[in-house]
Amino acid sequence: MATNKNRHDGHREGAVRDRSQFRTPSGDWAKRDARTGRILDVKSDGTRFKGVRRESTGSE
Question: Is the separation of the CB atoms in 36 and 2 below 8 Å?
């Protein structure tokens, strides 16, 4: 049986699939499900999500 090793170095292997992130008008980063368009999570500390692709808005 295969096991995933616990790396503890603060990064993931590969990209997050079926997710994207965008900046809200208030400046927070929000994560969206690419299939349904539903907002999954919002970060209020001003930093982006790790490994999640950004939606192109043309302003960034």
Answer: no
